[in-house]
Amino acid sequence: MNKKQMRKDILAIRDSISKEDILKKSEIILNKVKATDIFKNSKNIMLFTSFGSEVYTHDFIIWCKREDKNIVLPYIDKSTDIMKISVFNSFDDMKAGYKGILEVKEECIQSFDEKKVELIITPCVCYDFNKYRIGYGKGFYDRFFFKNTECV
Q: Binding of ATP: at which residues (predicted)?
């Protein structure tokens, strides 16, 4: 099965999960993240704002801020079509961006040194049998990781 077909099949299955189950499973997953040493010891964390049937991250982002973590979120630079990161302060500073995904409003973007990111938690469609991430097909994260190997 090729990546495109795998992506389509997995998304169809994932999209059939109820919102209630997504929230329950998200809490389990994110509690496991909270319990890891790498999370506990990281101050600067790159997260993502969930959409659709992804692991729900909005409450987790707020919880991280209360725990005094520096949270950075991705946004797509419209002039270059490249994913960059911005400091997250509040959901009031967010708007729907690429594919309707919440990202920091242009006027609220605060640059952050990518080399200072200690932990990256990314969205994905699934992982293949070799444990490689399969995303949504645009390569935004792949290019970001390639450019920032020291923080991956």
A: 3-7, 133-141
The CATH topology of domain 3-151 is Rossmann fold (3.40.50)
Annotated binding residue 100: no
First to last CA, the chain: 28
CA distances for 80 relative to 14, 24, 84, 87, 111, angstroms: 31, 37, 10, 19, 16
Quote the CA–CA distance of 137 and 124 in Å, as a whole number: 10
* 67 known member of a binding site: no
Q: What is the pTM (predicted TM-score) of this model?
A: 0.90
5 is in an annotated binding site: yes
> Does 4 belong to an annotated binding site?
yes
pLDDT digits (tens, 9 = 90+) for 1-51: 688 888 899 999 999 999 999 999 999 999 999 999 999 999 999 999 999
HEC-encoded secondary structure of 26-37: HHHHHHHHHCCH
- Residue-wise pLDDT tens digits, 61-114: 999 999 999 999 999 888 898 899 999 999 999 999 888 899 999 999 999 999
140 annotated as belonging to a binding site for a ligand: yes
Q: Has 127 been labeled as part of a binding site?
A: no
133 annotated to bind ligand: yes
24 labelled binding-site residue: no
